[in-house]
Amino acid sequence: MFSLWDKQSFLLNNDVIIIGGGISGLSCASSILETYPEKKVIILERGQTPQGASTKNGGEHQGRILVGGGLDQEYINESSCDLVNSQVLQNKILNFLNECILLNTPYEIDFNWSGIMAISKKDITLIDYLIDKESENVFYVGRYCGRGMILSSIAGEEMRNLVYQGKSRL
């Protein structure tokens, strides 16, 4: 594709380069610029408009199925001890795909991820980010880009202490 931009100088004069202009990429860019307004951030998007998985928010990216350790659900249902073992959840998703969506159509999974995490030092509302001990093994951290996040008890406790200097938000 022809471009009028000098590709070397175009990419060299930035502090952060984000690949993908979907919901996740734009959210990351916005968060970085809110926190560090002096930073130069560039977003690279292959098309004229974002069309990837985060834009569709459906777990599919150009005909490829993405399976991971989190589900888009209502706020009240997002925390779940079942998510401790992401393989159990992935198996449930695969069964749902086979039985209800793809109806036993052959497919290949191109990408697996194991978790989602977001951190904010801004004063945020309790409904949006709730750090709460759900059980001995799980800390529920909250929502980011429409997804729930789960951390193990040790990682969750360390994260809470790091972000809030050990103070409980509850």
Fold and architecture overview:
The protein has 170 residues and is α/β, with parallel strands linked by helices. The chain has a domain at 1-57. The protein is 30% helix and 19% strand. It has helices at 7-12, 23-35, 53-56, 86-101, 153-164, and strands at 16-19, 41-44, 60-61, 64-67, 109-112, 132-133, 138-144, 147-152. The strands form three sheets. A three-stranded mixed β-sheet has the order 3-4-5, covered by helices on one side. The longest helix is centred in the middle third of the chain and has 16 residues, at 86-101. The relative contact order is 0.13. Mean pLDDT is 58; it is low at 57-84 and 113-153. InterPro entries: FAD-dep_OxRdtase, FAD/NAD-bd_sf. This is Oxidoreductase, putative. Its EC number is 1.1.5.3. Pfam families: DAO. Residues 15-59 form the FAD dependent oxidoreductase domain.
